[in-house]
Amino acid sequence: MNMKIPAVFGMVVLGLSGLLFAQYTSQTDSVTFVAEVAQFIEVQVTPPSINFGTLNPLANTTSTTSVDVTNTANSNVDIKLTLSGSNFTSATDEIDITNLRMSASAAAPAAGSFIESMTNAEKACTSTVFNGGQDCSDVLIDSTVNLWFNFFVPGGKKAGTYSSTINIKSDGII
Fold this sequence. Notes:
A hairpin with a 4-residue loop joins strand 5 (about 90) and strand 6 (about 95). The protein has one helix and ten strands; from the N terminus they run αββββββββββ. It is mostly beta strands. It has a single domain, classed as Immunoglobulin-like.
């Protein structure tokens, strides 16, 4: 049987035979991302105030509760504490801040164990300064240090209500 190939098919075959098909390849590139996470410190201080109540001159009194400083779980660094305070003032008199002593301790220390006085200048906690069994120079993430205060009222101070402000500064330890 003699078949005739249509001319169109022959032209298509002839036309395709001259084409070169390119070979496809793939390429992979990568991008490097860099991000620096900043120090983040979140501290909770409770309670917001301490009331020693009514004291007699020459009295040496320890607070009935501690000031608890918590380095929360949101922090990403351990912290060290630095403390300073202002003199206790009333309407007519003043008691020097050095009559207030502080100790970091899990429980209320005996009155005689308070040896470190507060000052108007910042005073950093160290492994020995303000250490009454707890180290406020290295407060771990998600932990609490208890700060106890002891106040001595010198003789000759006028009757009245005295107040002071204590500043607690938290710095990250890297």
